[in-house]
Amino acid sequence: MTTKAETVLVTGGAGYIGSHMCVELLQSDRQVIVLDNLCNSSAASIDAIQRITQKQLSFVEGDVRDSDLLARLFAQNEIDAVLHFAGLKAVGESVAQPIKYYDNNLNGTLRLVEVMSAAQCKTLVFSSSATVYGIPDSVPIDESTVTGAINPYGRSKLMVEELLTDLYEADPSWRISLLRYFNPVGAHASGEIGEDPNDIPNNLLPYISQVAVGRLEKLNVFGNDYDTPDGTGVRDYIHVVDLVKGHLKALEYLAKGPKLAIHNLGTGNGYSVMEAIKAFEKCSGTTIPYEIASRRLGDAAVSFADPTKANTELGWQAQFDLDRMCEDVWRWQSTHPTGYPKA
Ligand code: NAD
Ligand code: UFG
């Protein structure tokens, strides 16, 4: 007797993390439907996913806030689970345009769970963020650390976590996984998919790699007077492939029964900005010009995960170190200096 392949809806599947997720899902013989409005991505990533895996997925260009479209998707397909990556993620933009962020990130999730509920599909993995911890009092950060986001983006993540928790309390037949990502970096080993920011990158690794490839002149190091070994900010960088493998483990965990679970996805190691620059220089054979600039408003000095709960409950542990993350970023960036081909 053969069992039917699991069908997974991936919202935001054309984006940076979602595209890596689709590769792992297809390679684990699941059927994949991607719903993405391409507001921060390119359909070229969908072609690349199919090239890497030599498998087909079903791509629907549309908005996750479109209830009619969602209802049609659920009517036409037997969807077993949803991985919900679709959302806006730029902290600075969220401060300037909070309503855009609340509309996309909250209404996107609300419409999705309404339609899921009506379709009796109640397995959901949500992309949350370490940003929900705000500026932590101590590290490592475990899941019991008090939350308190400090910008509209972070608050939108926290609000979604809260609304999903309320949903589970009202209907405990749901299976919900809230995954709090630390700092996803890296790219698929093929070099075919990777991070492709629309504008000047906000995040460290994409900025460094664009300096390395000559698109940007120099890196600004935001502060070297923090209480850290070399004075620069410390973060828990996690390889995007490790991160998406954590989602497969979360799906397996949810398959065991209804629950609402919260897990940090991080390596448990912290690296400073200077260590990241050095690692990138070594892996790419380039020199990264940099300048010390003032601290960036809202930045924590140190943030890294205690990933014990994900290690023990999900049976998941990150495998790749910082060198490997930098090697993979460089393979992607050096072969795609301007990102995906523009339509
Ligand atoms: P991304 O911007 O590359 O991917 C998000 C995708 O969602 C994009 O393809 C975008 O076009 C799509 N999208 C956005 N709004 C949509 C909508 N209303 N309808 C349909 N599609 C929509 O970002 P990413 O880095 O891949 O992040 C994925 C998720 O993980 C996001 O929810 C983000 O907040 C979360 N997250 C990211 C990080 C990070 O550092 N990259 C850290 C923590 C959490
Ligand atoms: N940094 C620089 N120069 C830059 C960019 C960053 O020195 O040009 C420094 C920052 O000050 C920080 C470190 O590099 O010390 C990492 O900064 P990122 O912007 O890459 O990452 P953050 O930890 O600040 O934030 C990211 C996402 C958030 C998310 C958080 C946790 O931007 O949305 O990771 O997942 F919430």
List the helices and strands and how they pair.
Layout: E1 7-11, H1 16-27, E2 31-36, H2 44-53, E3 58-61, H3 67-76, E4 81-84, H4 91-96, H5 98-118, E5 123-129, H6 152-170, E6 175-181, E7 183-185, H7 204-212, E8 219-222, E9 234-235, E10 237-239, H8 240-255, E11 259-265, E12 271-272, H9 273-284, E13 290-293, E14 302-303, H10 308-314, H11 322-335
Parallel strand pairs: 1-2, 1-4, 2-3, 4-5, 5-6, 6-11, 7-10, 8-13, 9-14
Antiparallel strand pairs: 9-12
Helix pairs in contact: 1-2, 1-8, 3-5, 5-6, 7-9, 7-11, 9-11
This protein binds nicotinamide-adenine-dinucleotide and uridine-5'-diphosphate-4-deoxy-4-fluoro-alpha-D-galactose (UFG).
Number of distinct beta strands: 14
- Return the domain count: 1
CATH architecture: 3-Layer(aba) Sandwich
Please name the CATH topology: Rossmann fold
Mean pLDDT: 97
Superfamily (CATH H level) name: NAD(P)-binding Rossmann-like Domain
Helix count equals: 11
Order of helices and strands: EHEHEHEHHEHEEHEEEHEEHEEHH
User: Could you give a short account of the major beta sheet?
Assistant: 7 strands, parallel
Helix content: 25-40%
Structural class: alpha/beta
Query: What is Rg?
Result: 19 Å
Question: Can you describe what's shown?
Answer:
The chain is 40% helix and 17% strand. It is of the alpha/beta class and 343 residues long. It has one domain: Rossmann fold. The termini are far apart. The structure holds nicotinamide-adenine-dinucleotide and uridine-5'-diphosphate-4-deoxy-4-fluoro-alpha-D-galactose. Residues 89, 91, 129-131, 181-183, 202-204, 207, 219-222, 233, 235, 273, 296, 299 line the site of uridine-5'-diphosphate-4-deoxy-4-fluoro-alpha-D-galactose.
